[in-house]
Amino acid sequence: MSELLQQAVFKNGLLVGFAVVGGVIWLSYFLSDRVTHGRLHGSAIAVFGGLLLAYVGGVVSGGKNGIADLPAFAGVGLMGGAMLRDFSIVATAYGASFDDLKKSGLPVIIALFLGVAVSFVCGAGVALAFGYRDAVSLTTIGAGAVTYIVGPVTGAALGASSEVMALSIAAGLVKAILVMIATPLVAKSISLDNPHTAMVYGGMLGTNSGVSAGLAATDPKLVPYGVMAATFYTGLGCLLAPSVLYLAMRMIFPQ
Amino acid sequence: MVIYGVALLAVCSLLGLLVGEALGAVLGVKANVGGVGFAMLLLLTITDWLAKRGRFKPVSASGVTFWSLMYIPIVVAMAAQQNVVGAIKGGPLAILAGTLGVVVSFALVPMIARIGRRAPGAAVATSPGRSDKKEAP
Q: Which of A27, A55, B28, B113 has the most CB atoms around it within 10 Å of its CB?
């Protein structure tokens, strides 16, 4: 009987991955709703849950690929692998429109570029302070401070170590969670009470789950404006971090 | 048909990644340079162009939106296979790196928003629909 179950699990790894991740997300949204009363967005808890699984997998297997190193959960590795990851990230661009960005004007474009640059420099600066000196690691951690999607995309493109990738995702996760919690608290002091400021805010902070949850907790009417600007942030980060920003880092820290 | 959206997404992704690989080769960087970003720009441009001509039916679009809705689960799956054990040694780094950027970004929001206001009412004047909503609450 257990052999049959084992066969079914091993042969249908991707389906196991869908089921496991579905369970993690259900539990995360349940916790988000019941325990944090929506203050912490379900998706942020889910990503944290993923990192928790990776920790358990790493401890149990002693490997570097988290839960995917356990044979029964190898399908999670396929689901979260490079191919489907890039595929779904590209899909998130759908729905954003050039016209809407143009309408929102110059300040949002400035906010987008400045937001990516500021987070990148802060992240890379902290990594530098912690002793990292190679351009790939500095860029990947800086990119992680942009968003937890830009980080691993950049790290994968540059061939960063898995440890640096995990740090980079963790930095992005810290950012997303902090934006969710802090936005309603600082909204008044940054005059976040109108669509214009909401778009600038979306462009500056950019982390999708952070911005959507942060604005929802502040004023649900502002969500589409902030998210519209934020939609471009991760794309811009994915465009700039492994290219211009990496080249700049390589000039400062030649191998 | 739903496969049209999925296929368009696949073609854009492949082309974008190809451009990224080519750019990486041209720049002498052993990396895919901005491939995902190019793929996004391509998808945006093509869907925008198709939608304006009424050629991108909702069923086709659902092939794209399905995968965009799958991105959080996929990011969760990706997180679940990272080397967290290795990263935990550098815990304060991740917390500081994430926090510092957020603090500085928040501080800059009012300044950037003011740049927009200096051009008198530019943001409001070009979009009357938006200013209506603004006054509603």
A: B113
